[in-house]
Fold:
Amino acid sequence: MFKFSNAMKPAFALALVPLLFATQATAADKYSGVGRTATPAEIQAWDIDVRPDFKGLPKGSGSVEQGQVIWENKCASCHGTFGENNTVFTPLIGGTTKEDVKTGNVANLKRNDYPGRTTIMKVSTLSTLWDYIHRAMPWNAPKTLSDDDVYAVLAYLLNLAEIVPDDFTLTNNNIQDVQKLMPNRNGMMRKHAMWPGKSGLVTATPPDTKNTTCMTNCKPAAKVSSTLPDYAKTSHGELATQVRPFGQTRGQGSADAPAAKSAHNPDYALAEKSGCTACHGINQKIVGPGFTEIADKYKGQDVTSKLVTKVKNGGSGVWGSMPMPPQTDLKDSDAQALVKWILSGAPTQ
Amino acid sequence: MAKNEELIPVETPEGLKKPGRIQKAPENFLTTTEVEQVTKGRRDFLRGSFMAAVAAAVTGRNAFAQDASALVDAKTGDPYILQPQTWATTLGKGVATAPYGLPSKFESEVIRRPSPGLTQTTQSSVSFSPLQSMFGIITASGLHFERHHQGWYDIDPSMHRLMVNGSSPEFVKNPKVYTMDDIMRMPFVSRIHFIECGANTGMEWGNVAVPTVQYTHGMLSCSEFTGVPLRLLLEDCGADMTKKFVLAEGADGSAMTRTIPMEMVLNDEVLVAYGMNGEMMRPENGYPLRLIVPGVQGVSWVKWLRRIEVGDQPYATKDEAVHYIDLMKDGQHRQYTSIQECKSVICTPSGGQKLLEKGYYTISGLAWSGRGKIKQVDVSTDGGINWKRAKLETPIQSKALTRFSLPWNWDGKTAILQSRAVDDTGFVQPSYGQLRAVRGTRSIYHNNAIQSWGVAENGDVSNVQVL
Structure:
């Protein structure tokens, strides 16, 4: 296409645009100067979704063996070596059988006494796992796995679930065949009242509960079927401090609250307030190491300033690959106090 | 004993103070010796005690909550009225002392809280809105509940982009990229809608599990959202509007994806929103851009929205095929359950609270429906045997929270408080018995059963379930 001089451009555009688009929806011209056409490279960079029919799946391959190596380096710290760990996330693997692979329905999902529901028990579509591992894993470094890495990790998981053999290599060519082995592939039901549309995605039904607006003598008695278990009464902290100390009501146990508070070590309270205790137990690892484990490790060493820096800037490698996120909002004085408290054995009282 | 009424602390059996009230119970405040002194006319003792109380009161909230504020002399009255207070007799602070205003320092109890033990990380977790302390229907932006899958970022709006493309090139003639500048030039709408996590009340499917309304129902918020109807952006890109679905995708680590029905886009319900309650969206809620999908569970309201794809098939994303699927009694999962059905809860009085004495209270709560407007809310104080029609506050808007209230004289006896909402489709909120009869007890999602709060004779309110 030949080039217009700058002077000619506006006149040309004004004259031609209505002609070019006259037969189309005028919306495309309506918001003049708003937005621009995406480049093919931009679309390729962001359009990463993979559908159940595997549209969007990039070519590639990965073996169970390769997957195990990646798994142990990048995944096992959260999910466990066999995808069975429940300390950080719900388990991925377990609860399915060879029989489920045949039927496509996970039998344990029918049991009320089966203790948990793993990812492989629930998921019906293999594309879901490929897409999710690719877009969001590893949890602390999403989108850093290559396409072949994703195939390999998925092959390893499928092998753990006894869906594919030890010597299996998953590829874009055989993934559709593996879909036919997914243990819960027939476990999804799309007949209900809770999809907002008539798109054919679900078979719409009327709502499944049918209460009425009875106003008087609606039943002979009100029977309490469940009350808060004793252990749960204090599981959410001091209820006294979770309601305003004025108004219609008070929090339960308000009178005891000040005494209970002062029994806490103030540095422990600071650790709770600063969110440390979400990842660190006093004595045991949660995501990061327990505080007393840290104290033991550095016993007799002058590491206060080193650890303060570590708390502020984050880090990983000392206690496993799960990184400690940087605590940029933490005041220096608080970081000092917390580290000293941890190194002194993290007393709670 | 008339003279014993001169110094009057007001205490409940457990020692909870009610400021500014007069009650005959001197022996709880004065020792026997002191009572004798008062009886003998030791007025100087009284004056000293009174002045000490006033001095303590001006030092801060602890003093406010302590005995001092309970002191009312039956003859003269309340020291907070009789004695000039600091705030009435000295100069206050200047404008813009807090350039972005904050709540009163006395509101420290009113915060979002996580549920201990629910998750093992803070980045893939939930914090719950303090429904027990909120008024009206708008959630203060700083109290909006949080649900993150891979942590949150405060994204520089000058670096944020929204892309619109098609799952096949022909579905969107001109795939485009929009900056925040572009989006904020477009025509906008402002609408009030609730957002509820599909897993709200999920811990209570089988039995009572958590103590307060913050944890039973606090994955619920309601705001005025401002943004561009998604339809306009799709039309601007020349999208094929006959395709049935759009995929929404986030810019965060989890790159959250959810399938949205095109019908809701065509109805102009789905918004690409940047405004929330008059300011920009808070970072925890998706700054600078999030999708608004009214009536649909919160997971579809994709935060840090970076991409919209027009497609002809659903996507079975992680949160449509592993999570946010509803396990039924027969072991099958319902997939693509999205609508938050009609639901309500009493926020005051509610679990973990205490009624200080018999007498008048105003029961107050929230009702909502993902299918439309709230038409009616009924309240029971006897566990659902008899019901009374509650008063609905305005505005009553589609797919928004509606505030209800009912006067209640507590007679000091045990009671079970319940609320039951009806929406404008005629759907009536189910009881636990009705819900479990059709869905069992093992689902995590879409528990909209009637909540019960048991009131004990000592005024303690606790979470209970009635079938």
In short: The CA atoms of residues 12 and 356 of chain B lie 6 Å apart. The longest helix of chain B spans residues 43-57. DSSP finds eleven helices and 26 strands in chain B. Residues 1-14, 24-32, 42-68 of chain B have pLDDT under 50 and may be disordered.
